[in-house]
Specification:
The protein has about 270 residues and is α/β, with parallel strands linked by helices. The protein folds into two domains: about 45 residues; about 220 residues, P-loop containing nucleotide triphosphate hydrolases (Rossmann fold, 3-Layer(aba) Sandwich), CATH 3.40.50. Helices cover about 35% and strands about 15% of the residues. It has eleven helices and nine strands. The strands form two sheets. The chain has a seven-stranded mixed β-sheet with strand order 1-9-8-3-7-4-6, sandwiched between helices. It has a two-stranded parallel ribbon with strand order 2-5. Strand 8, helix 11 and strand 9 form a beta-alpha-beta unit. The longest helix has 18 residues. The radius of gyration is 17 Å and the shape is globular. It starts with a helix and ends with a strand. GO terms for molecular function: ATP binding; protein tyrosine kinase activity. InterPro entries: AAA_dom, Bact_polysacc_biosynth/exp, P-loop_NTPase, Wzc-like_C. It comes from Syntrophus gentianae.
């Protein structure tokens, strides 16, 4: 039995869901450390990174968020605690190696990658010494702004195509230490822009300039477009979202083949039935 099949079988046996029945499966068989690696101290003045201070404030309606299966406060509920488990496993794995950029993708559309990216970013923003930047890099069909109820027409695509200042595009949704970079106008040539020197420079600057910042990129599905492969050249880690009883073994096999030699940290099995 292959490693992929073993991971899926283990997921079905345990039924250990994250939120809306999710399960994180490490790429390796080793358990993550139980405690988080001590976060790096921000050497800049003040407690928040400048990228957080230079944003537009568009407070989201928390009731609207909850209707969209978003957990805005990460407190109290079982679902919030499960997201924290996912957060802890990912941060343990990546912080230990000094990494702070994560790409979230899936084999096919509609498997839950965007919702996973949003809830994970919110949970990471609750960490004492971290700010989370959520980037909508699905430039073919940007949707993160819809989950938050924003009416926004400009974002990452405008930064890449029109040379707009990043500070004009960042949004604070009213959740402390969470910043969103919307996708902006949908594009058909998104692969070329995501692989451009300007995009590479943006990721590099964000990675190196702000010590407390963790960046999550929501990308389009891997088996439909080349965008995740292109963007993966600049990213520290990749999380693959898999929908139970929908994503086929062949699709998952093709996904791992495409991501061979890429920094895949694990898979998230989504929508498990009790």
């Amino acid at each position: 039995m292959s490693k992929i099949q073993k991971a899926l079988e283990k997921a079905k046996e345990t039924r250990d869901d994250i939120f809306d029945n999710l399960m994180f499966v490490s790429k390796t068989s080793k358990d993550f450390e139980e405690s988080l690696t001590q976060h790096r101290k921000d050497k800049r003045e003040g407690t928040l990174a400048p990228v957080y201070l230079q944003t537009r404030k568009l407070p989201a309606d928390f009731q609207h968020l909850k209707q969209n299966h978003i957990i805005p406060d990460c407190k109290g509920s079982a679902a919030a605690n499960r997201v924290k488990i996912l957060r802890t496993k990912i941060l343990n794995r990546m912080a230990k190696e000094g990494k702070n950029t994560l790409l979230i993708t899936s084999a096919n559309a509609g498997e839950g990658k965007t919702l996973t990216a949003i809830n994970l970013a919110i949970s990471i923003s609750q960490e004492i010494d971290r700010t989370a930047l959520l980037v909508d890099a699905d430039l073919r069909k940007p949707s993160i702004h819809n989950f938050f109820g924003f009416e926004i027409s400009e974002g990452l695509s405008d930064y890449l195509k029109k040379d707009m200042p990043l500070s004009d595009l960042l949004v604070s949704p009213g959740i402390e230490k969470l910043v969103i970079l919307p996708g902006g106008k949908a594009l058909t040539n998104s692969s070329e822009l995501l692989g451009s020197p300007r995009m590479e420079s943006l990721v590099k600057e964000l990675k190196e300039r702000y010590s407390d910042l963790f960046i999550i990129f929501d990308s389009c599905s891997l088996l439909e477009y080349a965008d995740p492969l292109v963007l993966s050249r600049f990213i520290d880690g990749i999380l693959i979202v898999v929908e139970a009883e929908k994503t086929t073994k062949n699709d998952l096999k093709r996904t791992f083949e495409l991501l061979k030699d890429k920094p895949v940290i694990g898979t998230l099995l989504n929508k498990l039935r009790d």
